[in-house]
Amino acid sequence: MGRVLFCFLSFCLCVACEESGPDVTLDNVFNAQMIEDYDLVINLSTDILGQWGVSKEDKVKAYTFRGGGYSKLEQYEPAIADLSDAIKLDPTWRLAVLDRAAAYQAIGLYAEAVEDWTEIIRTDPQHAEAFAQRGEARAALGQHKLAIEDFTQAVKFNPSAARSYNLRGLSHRLLRQYESAIQDFTAAIEIKPAFLAALNNRGLAYNSLGQYARAIEDYTIALRLFPRYLMGYNNRGISLGFLGQHEAAIRDFNTIIEFNPEDAFAFNNRCNAYGKLGELERAIEDCNKAIELDPNYAYSFFNRATAYGALGEFGSAIEDYTRATELNPKYAEAFNKRAQAFEELSDKLKAIEDYTKAIELTPKRAVLYLKRCAALGEISEYGEALTDCSKAVEMNPDSPPVFSQRALLYQKLEQYDDAVKDWDRFIELNPNVYAAYMNRALGLKKMNQYDRAVDDYIKAIELNPESESAFLERAGAYESLGQFDRATDDYGKALELNPENIASFTNRANNFLRLGQYEKALDSYAESINLDPNIAGTYFDRGLVHITLEQYDNAIEDYTRAIELNPIDAGGFVMRGGTFGVMGQLESALEDFNRAIELDSNDATTFVRRAAAFNGLGQYDRAVDDLNRAIKLDPADGTAYNSRCWTNAKHLGRFEAALPDCETAVKLDPASANALHSLAFVHEGLGDRGLAVEEYRRALEMDPDLQATKDDLARLGEL
Question: What is the model's pLDDT at position 8?
Answer without folding.
Answer: 31
